[in-house]
Amino acid sequence: MDALTQLLRETMEYYLTDVHTAMPGVVTRYNAGARRAEIQPSFKRKMPNGEYVGFPIISDVPVLFFGTKRFTIHFPLEKGDEVLLLFSERGTDTWKTNGGAGIEESDPRRFDLQDCFAVPGLQPQKFIVAEKPGLQITHKDNGNIISQLFMASDQIELKHKKTIVDLKDNLLSATNDKASVRLNGDKVSVKNGSKSLHNIITTLWRAMVTTAPITLGSPAQHNWNPAIAQAINTAMADLGSLMED
Fold this sequence. Notes:
This protein has about 240 residues and is an alpha+beta fold. The chain has helices at about 1-15, 95-100, 195-210, 225-240; strands at about 20-30, 35-40, 45, 50-55, 60, 80-85, 115-120, 135-140, 145-150, 155-160, 165-170, 170-175, 180-185, 185-190, 195. Helices cover about 20% and strands about 35% of the residues.
């Protein structure tokens, strides 16, 4: 009975060596236009004699990105990127050509190595860490952020190198290493380093309204026209209602 049990176990294990469900793989080549990849399965197959033999590279593997015919998310895959391989219970030749429903696939193969799909993002160790809770889409190169989109319940932040656009509650700000623009409720602020547009205009206004009249000749004297002074005061009041320091 033990011999029969051992025979059945070995027969089943041998049969299952050709039944594939899911395993990690490594991209060797990717065609973004066709969304097809060549992928090397990560695992090796253990032979009856104990030797390990690598699986062949699988070609024409459809890569899964979230999307429809009208909307999509896509990013490039590079050689060495790791993916998850999912194997179909039926052949996929007809589906790759036509898609749709009601496919009558005549090939009898099941869970075959060549009938797989790749899902990017399966990374065991090296991956981009989520720095804070929320939706994060990040592009890094050599550890440096190239661009990033972060979304939470109270904030949306967009980064590109040294430029940051941040939306939080009723405040929208855009900054880089030299200048900044803020929309705070019903007011706007424009700054460049320590200088702000509000301060520049305010300083000019104060200088104009406090400068003593210029005297040219004698007894001629040139004073401020009251209408001009009133116009300046009105303009500065309007500016104060629109801008902040």
